[in-house]
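Long-time lurker. I teach an intro course on protein structure, and each term I like to show students one example going from raw sequence to a predicted 3D structure in token notation. This year I'd like something fresh instead of my usual example. Would anyone be willing to generate the tokens for the chain below so I can use it in lecture? Attribution to the forum is fine with me.
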Amino acid sequence: MSGGTAVLHIAADHPAFAGHFPGRPIVPGVVLLDEALRAIAAAEGLSATAWKLGSAKFVRPVGPGEPLLLRWQAPGAGGAIAFAIETAGQPVASGSLSPQGSGVPPA
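-- Reply from a regular --
Happy to contribute to a lecture. Here you go:
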């Protein structure tokens, strides 16, 4: 595993926007985390279900259609992967994913 970058796109018609929030839709944090996990797992050839959230911090709301850049680092101690999401050079969220069991999960 090497770390990398990916562009995330949350479609303006995503069903989560219906309840978050009328009049000023924002992407729920769980949707950001799910998209980040899927992108990292796909890029690194890993199972998306073998990870747990180690930590997460949300610092800016994201609206429908905002371009998002995901960056992650190769696994550190204990196999954890640090990640960060930004839009237009501004931080949106950051956190870490840890393997469910010991060591790095198989592909």
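Some talking points for your students: The mean pLDDT is 88. Residues 40 and 72 are 8 Å apart (CA to CA).
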